[in-house]
Amino acid sequence: MRPSLVSLTLALALVACSESHGPGLEQPLTQGPHLLRWAGQSPPQFTAIGGLSGSGVATPGLLRASGPSGLSLGQYVVTFWAVRGETRWVQVNYLSGSDSTQPFLRLTTFDPTYAPGVGELAVGDSVLISVTVDSENVKVSLEPTGLRFGEPAQLQMWYGGANGDLNGDGVVDDGDAYVESQLLGMWCREGPFDEWTRIWADQSLADEVLSGALQHFSEYAVSW
After folding, report:
1. For residues 191 and 146, is the Cβ–Cβ distance under 8 A?
2. How far apart are CA 85 and CA 123, in angstroms?
3. What's the rounded Cα separation, in Å, for the pair 5 and 125?
4. Which H or E run includes 17?
5. What residues form DSSP beta bridges with 75?
6. In this predicted model, what pLDDT tens digit does every residue of 61-86 receive, in sequence order?
7. Three-class SS of residue 220?
């Protein structure tokens, strides 16, 4: 092939790749999901409340990094008891400034049916649930991994903590708007060495939140 034809072929290929990504997207989507990162202070700070649905009872508490007894430092964890036949919920809020908070996650459970190491759960049986928030990315791990539900658990994940910079280039522009409206979603994986898979989730652009129904627990992230 003549050098002029080679140059033309390469130029057309580059144009085709750049157009397939949308404005402001420089990474091929085939490389896997792009996790959103927390904006603002480092490390980020969170608070949590939880209780029985409809009871008006809420228990506030600061999420702190765990010690050497298991989870690594730099992660934040809150625990609560889920009971089959009772609606239980926990909400994690992101501290975006000295006096301002915004929601990050709300998990609601009603019908846990099977717990690893325990087996089938009867009505009234309880299981301890851990919600571990990642300190770098808009990501959470729900445990025990493999916990299954009859009636799905409900998970809401707000992405306002990324402060609008959804493609991670340091500026908020039309590229971020494209990511939010066309590409953003909820992804999950079973473990740290498994592949990420996109799952169905309803999105509210006005509230910057994704809502999904979970049949089991694993790791979940807002990404594209």
Report:
1. no
2. 6
3. 71
4. helix 3-21
5. 134
6. 555 544 333 333 346 888 889 999 99
7. strand
